Amino acid sequence: MKSPLLRRLVPSILEYFVCMVLAGIVLIPLYLSVVGGFKSSGQLAIDPLGLPNPFLWNQYGDLLLGTVGTFWRSLWNSLFVAGATVFLTLMLCVMAAFALARLPFRGRGLLNTYFMLGLLFPLAVAILPLYLQIRTVGLLDSPWGVVLPQVAFAVPMTVLLLRGFFLSIPQDLEDACAIDGYGPLGFLFYMVLPLSTPILSTTAVLALVSSWNNFFLPLLVFNSENLFTLPLGVMSFQGQHASDWQMILAYLTLVMVPAVALFIAAQRYIVAGLTGGALKG
Amino acid sequence: MMTKRRSKWPLLLLLLGPTFLLFTFFVVVPVIEAAVFSLYKWNGLGPLGDFRGLNNFWTLFQNAVFHKALTNNLAIVFFSLVVEVPLALYLALILGRSRFKFAVLFRTIFFLPYVFSEIISGLLWQFIYHPQRGLVHAFYAAFLPDASVPAVLGNPDTVLAGIMVVIVWKYFGFHMSILIAGLQDIPEELKEAARMDGATESQTTRRIILPLLLPTILISVFFAVVGSFQVFDTIWAMGKGDPVNAAESVVTYLYKFGIQRFNIGYGSAVAVTIFLICLTFSLTYNRLISRVEKR
């Protein structure tokens, strides 16, 4: 009687143990950051794990009031760059993928292959000439110098995902639309787009997260601090306050809050978007 | 019929034109330029005149720092394959089962680091490793008060290991999620049938689930390898490849020796080399994947 129960119980205890330990390893750095922002420099040095004592509000306060650092400015810059990237990526790629999926024309296969070649090139490969290209068109030190290349590099994956979905929409629906007197654009707006919300959210999440976390391109393009997005802002803040770790941790926490909030609010879409994008690509 | 077909071109131009131009201008042209520039010595200003053939590549292949960078990337690949992917697989097999209590909570927690920028995770761990402030320091103070606290990121022998821990910390949940998505595509009836035939849990896993999951595992491996070759942000946030270039990766090398020193030609040679490595891997690997999927 006892042994089958034991045999089932022991592995599952082990599994819970592993999961708890890993959850601790994931969460402890985040916890350290949150409480560290409330601590004094002295307490941080001897007691990183304990609760703040004394409890100092001024580090978070200074950052939020803007007396130290440029948190709100960087947040706004990140929002602007990510918003513009997501909007343009979706708009342009929906149009292109629709044409590639539903409008027969000569050279269609070739054009599709042309876009798909982009999947082979990571941003790092093209970064030097890309930098020169951005300089040529005068977009260095401008948000558009980050937005437009980000959109361009998002094209292959986004077109791949959207085109695949658009191809799966039955021809009958298109014929029905045509009978009702709608042309290709009517079919796109009244039939294809409403059907496409899952794949649109997948591609939007991919573009949003990669723009929000992008560091390499903004590092090259932005020179003036008032254009810095959050990753750049944090990095330069750390450079300026290298010994004030309670300040840096408060800043890191503030930067993590929007990401965690968005993740919890839209978790299903985000996990599905990021993993789905990987799997279908 | 003729007029109808002709009238389609303005629409096609409207739909495809902007994407085509943007993609060509910011992706295709720079990639071609990188290949061209790699044959020249050029600082990015003035005319492109000093043709050097493959000289940049020979210099690169003999450069000790580049060797170090490449070795580091291979070490990261190895570590990802030996630690990250197996850990993710183990967790996916546990948390993919619906009767595991709190599975959803654990999945959420494990995925969480993936949504942060690598700069955030890098700086967080820089604090943890900090010899006068962080967790490592507190551990030594509590348990080994007489020993001196190691500066993980300040020591050329340990800095790469310190960074690899952060990479696994950030990405294991992503790989776990990919594998769970793959597990959910395996029909429940197959597992049911195996159980009916008297197979034990571990037999079902080994004989039924793992073979069917293999294509997904291969995708996860693919991302681990290609991602490892593009590591930049994490290293940049944890000491920029130093001390003494001990933690350099091929992309930090590209940034430091190409961009910061305005050696556009030499930097492009680095870029082309990275590209060729990734391309060779992608092509061979894709052949492997399609062979597995055919079986």
Strand-helix topology:
The complex is a heterodimer of chains A (281) and B (295).
Chain A: H1 2-36, H2 41-46, H3 58-65, H4 71-102, H5 108-116, H6 123-136, H7 144-167, H8 171-179, H9 184-195, H10 197-213, H11 216-221, H12 230-240, H13 245-265, H14 267-280
Chain B: H1 2-6, H2 8-37, E1 40-41, E2 50-51, H3 55-62, H4 64-95, H5 103-115, H6 118-129, H7 135-143, H8 159-184, H9 188-196, H10 201-228, H11 233-237, H12 250-259, H13 264-294
Antiparallel strand pairs in B: 1-2
Q: Kindly estimate the percentage of residues of chain A that lie in beta strands according to DSSP.
A: under 5%
CATH topology of chain B: MetI-like fold
Count of individual beta strands of chain A: 0
Report low-confidence residues of chain B grouped into runs of 5 or more: none
Structural class of chain A: mainly alpha
Taking pLDDT < 50 over at least 5 consecutive residues as the criterion, the unreliable ranges of chain A are none
Overall morphology of chain A: globular
Question: Helical residue percent of chain B?
Answer: over 70%
**Quick check: average pLDDT of chain B?**
87
Biggest sheet layout of chain B: 2 strands, antiparallel
Q: What's the pLDDT, averaged over the residues of chain A?
A: 88
CATH class of the largest domain in chain A: Mainly Alpha
Give the ordered list of helices and strands of chain B. HHEEHHHHHHHHHHH
- Summed up, the domain count of chain B is 1
Question: What composes the largest sheet of chain A?
Answer: none
Number of helices of chain B: 13
Q: How would you name the CATH homologous superfamily of chain B?
A: MetI-like
The fraction of residues assigned to DSSP E strands of chain B is under 5%
